[in-house]
Predict the structure.
Amino acid sequence: MAVSGATGERPLGVDELLERVRAGYRRIGAREAYAAARTGAALLVDIRYAALRERDGLIPGALVIERNELEWRLDPQGSHRVPEATGHDLPVVVVCDEGYASSLAAASLHRLGLHRATDLVGGFQAWRAAGLPVEPVS
């Protein structure tokens, strides 16, 4: 990816960055993510911050890891990993509020070697709009 600076390359805008990172993997829709989570074929990871979770609720069974901790918690080689971070082959579906931050997060997980990471098109809002289960924060 181009970065401005001493090389004289033009700055890369966020829209182009999203387009580039999304081209590197297949994103999935809400119903596919739901099916994958129900069968244990994928781990749903909710990266939304607390205020959004409190406002809109939670996806039952999703692992909550806020965005600023994601790489540390899912790196299978990391000392701060969660028990679910069992290996680089772990299928992860990252969920943000609307499906933008999750794309950048999935790309970051790819750079850590989690080659099966993807994100939910439309994020939590698409999940809810599809009528999929949501539970209140307790």
About this structure: The radius of gyration is 15 Å. Strands lie at 43-46, 63-64, 92-95, 118-119.
